[in-house]
Design brief:
Radius of gyration: 63 Å
Helix content: over 70%
Strand content: under 5%
Largest sheet: none
Order of helices and strands: HHHHHHHHHHHHH
Distance between the termini: 133 Å
Length: 410
């Protein structure tokens, strides 16, 4: 139900409601930079900078929650209210309730459950921090002004390129551009040649007398110096000509040879220094070996003795292990014997068998009395049966005698 209601609210707000948290996060980052949070919070607590999507998306809830506590406490203090810096292992419910209390005291509204802030990310977290940052800016007297846009410069930016990356085509293009730029100030050889031919063919009238110049020599030299840069004559060369490439190869070769001479001198000097250093190291190594030869021999002897002692130790360790195993077996047997002795001793000192014997004797006596009673009853029954039988026999004998006497009278 809660999910359905949230979707209905988003539908009412429009399709851009899902991106509101990113806009809030952008504003929050700008306000935090204005408050110089990098120096006062990040460097103080040794934290990483907050990205533009830090509180908008869920990345690490525990780290985000602690960062939210730290920034909220710092912003509340910046806004003029005292708030103790929370620790990482404090109760999150208590800290969030304190933050919401300070938010309401500053004039903010919190119409959402505190569990939204416990996640450490989301629109509610961005809203709380943005509101606190706004209050902190108001408290320090910061005011927003209209942006001042720089005037656009009409000059095109010149992109400097590396000479090493220039290709042959670029060089040709640059030369062509230079030639086109200087066409106004250059004099073509063909034009000069045509003008000379016209003068030689008599197109202009030749004076009959020798002409003499009335121009001052100083002014003439000044005019020549002024127009001299514009009178340069250049001969266009084809960069694809093999002669140009040969000249370049010769130039590069001369440069490599001059550089090689200097480098070779440095390398030879370095080689000599390294050789001398190696000789010194070798001589010192030999000296140290000679000085420490006796100690090395002692060390080798000590190593050999140590190896022998290790072997003896291993043998003794194996023997000790075997003896320990035998001892454990004997201890087990001894424990068994002790248990048997304790059981027998407890059975000897225990009066339970005697009580059982007395109970058995009592039961035997009771059974004997019962048997005597039964025997007496049986004897009495047997005696009665015998008496009855004897009385019956006497009765029969008397009857027979009577019969015999009666028969004799007849």
């Amino acid at each position: 139900m809660a999910e359905d209601s949230r979707r209905m609210e988003e539908d009412d707000q429009g399709p851009g409601a899902a991106f509101k948290v990113f806009i809030l996060m952008e504003d929050l980052i700008e306000k935090l930079k204005l408050l110089d949070y990098e120096e006062e919070v990040l460097r103080k607590h040794n934290m990483r900078p907050v990205s533009r999507l830090y509180f908008a998306l869920a990345t690490n809830p525990g780290e985000q929650l602690y960062m939210f506590w730290t920034l909220a406490a710092w912003l509340i203090n910046k806004a003029g209210h005292y708030f103790e810096q929370p620790q990482e292992y404090d109760d999150p419910n208590a800290i969030i309730s304190k933050i919401l209390t300070e938010l309401r005291s500053l004039g903010g509204t919190a119409d959402f459950p505190p569990s939204k802030l416990k996640a450490g990310h989301g629109e509610q977290v961005c809203y709380v921090l943005d509101f606190l940052a706004e209050e902190a800016l108001k408290h320090i007297g910061f005011t927003w002004k209209r942006p001042v846009y720089p005037s656009e410069e009409l000059d095109e930016e010149v992109v400097a390129e590396d000479d090493a990356e220039l290709t042959l085509n670029k060089i040709e293009d640059e030369i062509a551009e230079e030639d086109s730029d200087d066409e106004e100030h250059l004099i073509d050889l063909n034009v000069l040649k045509a003008q000379t031919n016209k003068l030689n063919n008599g197109d202009s009238s030749k004076p009959e007398e020798i002409l003499e110049s009335n121009t001052d020599a100083g002014e003439w030299y000044l005019e020549v110096e002024r127009v001299l840069p514009q009178l340069k004559v250049t001969v266009r060369t084809d960069n694809k000509d093999w002669r140009v490439h040969v000249d370049q190869m010769h130039q590069h070769k001369e440069g490599i040879e001059t550089s090689l001479k200097e480098t070779k001198g440095y390398l030879d000097k370095l080689h000599n220094e390294i050789s001398k250093t190696l000789e010194k190291v070798g001589s010192r190594e030999r000296y140290i070996n000679n000085q420490l030869d006796s100690l090395v021999q002692e060390y080798r002897a000590a190593q050999a003795q140590l190896s022998e002692l290790k072997e003896q130790y291993q043998e003794l360790t194996s023997k000790v292990t075997e003896k320990s195993r035998i001892l454990s077996e004997l201890n087990d047997e001894l424990e068994k014997v002790k248990q048997e002795i304790e059981e027998k001793g407890s059975s000897i000192t225990d009066g339970a068998p005697l009580v059982k014997m007395k109970q058995a004797l009592t039961k035997l006596k009771q059974e004997t009395v019962q048997m005597d009673i039964r025997i007496g009853v049986v004897e009495h029954t047997l005696l009665q049966s015998k008496l009855n039988e004897k009385s019956n026999m006497t009765r029969d004998m008397h009857a027979t005698t009577i019969l015999e006497s009666s028969t004799g009278d007849y």
